[in-house]
Specification:
Number of helices: 8
Shape: globular
Strand content: 5-15%
Structural class: alpha/beta
Strand order of the largest sheet: 1-2-3-4
Length: about 200
């Protein structure tokens, strides 16, 4: 899609994915630093470029994790079905798997996470970070995800222009395939204002 619009596209594997190194994913706690490094690399190669950061699911969460960082030549952010809280993710999974003991398991896992990765999961709450957002933002999700209310709150908290697209009949992360025309149209309109 972006290539058809004439953009250069970089799609790196996140740490511990595909050909990338690393043993663990950190749901954005360390990956956001990697993304900042990719932006620096792009800027070295194209000093006057204009950059859009677009992420899906965990990638959308990583995009939100850098929303408050000063990134040279970044013009806009697109977060598609983004994860918005590492902490809530841990609690959700633990409650599903361990029922009554879920909260205790999540709390223990989060303490190990902090020890292992040297960062607190609570530092990666979209609702906190977005209050200091530096970039226009497009939030997208499928209607079956039930994210409209959460996105409205993020939009209210964001000091930058924020647009929301809820894609009818779509589940987590499949909007580009099930509602291609609608979603691509929303992206085109959004980036045309900032690129």
């Amino acid at each position: 899609f972006y290539l058809s619009l004439g953009y250069n596209v970089l799609i790196p594997y996140q740490r511990a994915h595909g050909a990338s190194m690393g043993e663990y994913i950190t749901f954005g706690a360390l990956e956001h630093r990697d993304l900042m490094g990719w932006v620096e690399l792009i800027n070295q190669k194209i000093p006057n470029g204009r950059i859009i950061l677009h992420g899906l699911s965990m990638g959308g969460g990583i995009v939100l994790d850098v929303c408050d960082k000063p990134l040279q030549n970044v013009c806009a952010l697109i977060a598609d079905a983004p994860s918005t809280s590492i902490k809530e993710f841990f609690f959700h999974v633990s409650r599903s798997a361990f029922k009554k003991e879920g909260d205790a398991v999540a709390a223990h896992a989060l303490s190990i996470f902090k020890q292992k990765f040297g960062t607190d999961a609570e530092d990666f709450e979209a609702a906190k970070l977005i209050q200091n957002c530096r970039y226009p933002l497009l939030l997208a999700a499928g209607s079956n995800e039930g994210r409209a209310e959460q996105f409205a709150e993020l939009k209210r908290l964001n000091p930058q222009p924020t647009e929301i697209v809820i894609l009818p009949g779509c589940d987590h992360g499949n909007g580009m395939y099930k509602q291609t025309e609608t979603y691509q149209g929303a992206i085109k309109d959004f980036i045309a204002r900032y690129i």
